[in-house]
Amino acid sequence: MQTADILNSHCLSRTVLRHLTDRWTPFIVTVLADATPHRFTVIKQRIQGISPKVLTETLRSMERDGLVDRQVTASIPPKVEYQLTPLGLSVVPPIEALRLWAEEHLEEVESHRAQYDARCAASADGAS
User: Fold this and answer.
1) Cα angle at 97 between 95 and 101, to 5 degrees?
2) In a 3-state reduction of DSSP, which class is residue 74?
């Protein structure tokens, strides 16, 4: 077995990282982090801006990777719930750490963005 190396273009760990850092995966993990089953509609309501199509695709990808368990209860209509697997629960701490970092450093990042945008605008004005 080859040693995992995220910097190697042929290493499968790249796809794992890509799935974990997908635009919507961290939000889904955050919703499901309480380790209880959630219905599709609840997940969609909690994550503002996600479309049903994208939520379905992301949940399927997470299920394929072993991060999410999809449970269907025979009823009319069928009841479908999603829950993090033990593997999925293992990604909660690193995603939580990234979420906290983003929330704690939001003002600093916004300040740097404003400074950068001002420098770019000044450069554009000077180039005209």
Assistant:
1) 115
2) coil
> Tokens 């635009």 belong to which residue?
23
| Residue labelled with tokens 């909690």 | 46
What pLDDT tens digit does each residue of the chain (128 aa) get? 668 899 999 898 998 899 899 999 999 999 999 999 999 999 999 999 999 999 999 999 999 999 999 999 988 888 999 999 999 999 999 999 999 999 999 999 999 999 999 999 998 877 66
Hunting for tokens 């801006």 — which residue is that? 49
Residue type, 58: T
Closest of 71, 73, 97, 69 to residue 85, by C-alpha: 69
Q: What is the pTM of this model?
A: 0.86
d(CA 87, CA 102): 24
